[in-house]
Amino acid sequence: AGLSLAYPKEDVFYEKMPTRHLDSKTKADAYKIIRSIELFKFLSDEQIKIIIKDMMVREFESSNRLISQDEVGDSMFILVEGLLRVTILSGKNGTRKETEVAIIKPGDFFGEMSLLTGESRSANIESVTDSIVYEISKDSFKPILNENKNLAEQLSMIIAKRNLDKENVKNMNASDLKENQKNIAAQILSGIKSFFSDVFS
């Protein structure tokens, strides 16, 4: 009707803030955060310490882009504080549309496929609020796989289950679900072995 809104449009996010008794920059508290991540539940205390020693603590201001869809990457991230928006570009060049698909909350991790297989980033991720993340690189994870090559198989199963959980598999029976997870895990394991070829050669 040609009328302007009295106030600019705003997105409001309601999320319970984590208890602020952990300091993301101290090793002791970083250990608690890393240990709580499902992907690392099979790691020993010493392996967790290796990750903490080499990982980067990165801070992003509101509206900063962390990663871009289709870019090459070899690291994963853990959100320690803040909120992140996940969007996906679809359509052809010139008519591409950006759609929000998820919100990442403290304690969530992302980018694990790039870390383990070198797969390109599957989405855009930007900060909704000022945020703090841990970044774990391929180089810091390589010694852990070198020490325990069986870990690759365990990681593959966890990621396969995580991928299936994102899909609509409610109508799939337990047997088919297990078989699907096994097949996806086999593909991921192959990717890990190829990306870390110097470890598995």
In words, what does this structure look like?
With 201 residues, the protein is α+β, with helices and mostly antiparallel strands. The protein is built from 7 helices and 8 strands; from the N terminus they run H-H-E-E-E-E-E-E-H-E-E-H-H-H-H. It has helices at residues 27-35, 45-54, 112-117, 138-147, 151-166, 174-195, 197-200; strands at 56-60, 65-67, 75-81, 84-90, 97-104, 109-110, 124-127, 131-137. A 4-stranded antiparallel β-sheet has the order 1-8-3-6. A hairpin with a 6-residue loop joins strand 4 and strand 5. Helix 2 runs antiparallel to helix 4 and helix 5 crosses helix 6. The model has no long low-confidence stretch (mean pLDDT 87).
Could you give a quick summary of the protein structure above?
With 201 residues, the chain is of the alpha+beta class. Helices cover 38% and strands 21% of the residues.
Which structural traits does this protein have?
single chain; 201 residues; 4-stranded antiparallel sheet; globular
- What's the helix-strand series? HHEEEEEEHEEHHHH
Instruction: Count helical runs.
Output: 7
Helical amount among residues, as a percent range? 25-40%
| Category by helix and strand content | alpha+beta
Query: What proportion of the residues form beta strands (DSSP E)?
Result: 15-25%
Largest sheet: 4 strands, antiparallel
Strand order of the largest sheet: 1-8-3-6
Give the uncertain stretches in residue-range form. none
User: Between the first and last Cα atoms, what is the distance in angstroms?
Assistant: 67 Å
Which descriptor suits the 3D outline? Answer: globular
- What gyration radius follows from the Cα positions, in whole Å? 19 Å
Average pLDDT figure: 87
Could you give the count of β-strands?
8
